[in-house]
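Hi W.,

Here's what went into the run:
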Amino acid sequence: MKALSCHDLCFSRSASGGAEKAILDRVNCSFPAGEVTLITGITGVGKSTLLHILAGLIRPTSGEVRADGRPVSRWVTAHKDLWRRKAGIVFQQARLMRGMTALENVMLPLIPRGLGLSQIRKAGMASLERLRAGHLAGEGVSGLSGGETQKIAIARALAAGPEALFADEPTAHQDDESAGLVLDVLKKESQEGCIVVIVAHDHRILKSGIAGRHFTIESGRVYKVR
Amino acid sequence: MHIIKPIHIWAMRDILRRPGEASLLAAALCLLITLSGTALLLTQSLSYTARKMIEIAPSLVVRKVGLAGWEPIPENSALDSAGVVPGVAGARARVWGLAAGPDRAVTVVGVVGQTDNIASETGLEQLPLEGEAVIGEGIGPLEKGDTLQLTGAASLVFKIVGRFPADTGMATHDLVLLHKKDAMRLLGLPEGFASDLAIHVFNEEEQSAILPDLSRAFPWPVRVTTRRETAGYYSASFSKRGGIVVIALIPSMMALALLILYVVRERTGRKHEVGLLKSMGWTTTDIVKVQISRSLLIALPAAALGSLISYILVLQPGARWPGALFFGWEGIPPALHLDTTGAVLVLAEIACLVIVPFLASVLWPALKSAAADPQDLIEAQT
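Here's what came out:
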């Protein structure tokens, strides 16, 4: 995949009293492969919503998301399900499956893809190792710290080799060293041809210079900073 | 190509995430299948056993009737009269009746030599001589060499020389086989008289057609019963008992409804997991596959165990409680039997009554959420 782009993208939600509240308003921007894109903005401005629309988790109210010119946001469920296989998502709250180990969580995206169990396990371990979290493989996720949980969520998003990676606050719970590691991994992913979109408040990301593109959201509109 | 795929292993792993819940669900299903399977097996095997019993019964039975009811039938004269009726293939005078046994009334049948077909039909090797008796399973825990006192027109004591094979079931359950002379003394039958006449016809379809000729052939009033009438009597009796079983199934079905409600709620409550899996590239088909595998992993062992328990409860010789519970039988119940068709029918009924609704309750929430956006499902946290 070479690029993702938004075309007059709008998204609104029902507010209290039944009125529609616009979250995103005529968003036009593109996210090329080989470059990390950073989206910033104040809390509740719609950054995560944009990320979820790009990842195919919610449908825009109007407008569309195109992948290499194809209107993926308009696709029917069956096609959209398959489109999501090309995407990796890191949620703001890691959203790991409780009652399972770290490795099992990382293996989850690979299970329905026709691979053998040993291949899945190997890919899962490799993904954990990239985040230097191999030692957590057998640990139950309930007992992990916030930073460890976040690393597992990133490893899960990377496990299937996504063509587009969407990360919501990927360094929020990391110390400086771990944040550096996470950003290195994301940058390397981008250099290997993946579309990487990061939504964050974390100033360490801005300072790192990882982002080739930088958008900010204000009052539902997206502005290009760089 | 491996039959067990990672998606099936994940289904198993998902069960192990909540082992207590899965065990309870399996136990509840097993109990439900045991209850409904027992009721259905009992009806089916009773019907089959009775049908087998009717198959070995004579085509027609002739009894002499008088003002006071049944009367002994003059043996030679009756055989001569029946023999001339067109369509009759053979006639046999039978000596039988009821007598008081040690605990309850028993059916006494008198035989001599190989004149009665009861020996060949039950696989009995030795027929009783005078003073001897062969007994059915329901007579009591008597062994070879024990004595049995029977009371009718006379009170007589017999030495037990054998038991009917257990697999002869209902046909011999409360039967005491005696020598013809002993049976006649016990039942108060005069010499040269029998209880009734068993008639075999050339063509089973002609049973009804020869009835008028047969009735006219005897110089005294007779009542002729066809095999179809006997079958009709049993059929009516089993319909009534089937009704009792249906009533017994109502609580099971109510429990099933509660179980299904629970499963639907539980599955709906785990919507966020479905959303999460979809966000990772799982398709609706993948999710349905996991749900089916997960449910079958719980339901199939439960169904197998439930069916096995109900089979043992109903068809193991000497199993008392289903007959006592559903039909009020007392004492040792008759051994019941089931043919392959009947067994398949019961399994199909169990599948329709329990397994299919259970699977539907699992699939319904998954299919319902198929068209929903993953983020909406993820946010539907309970």
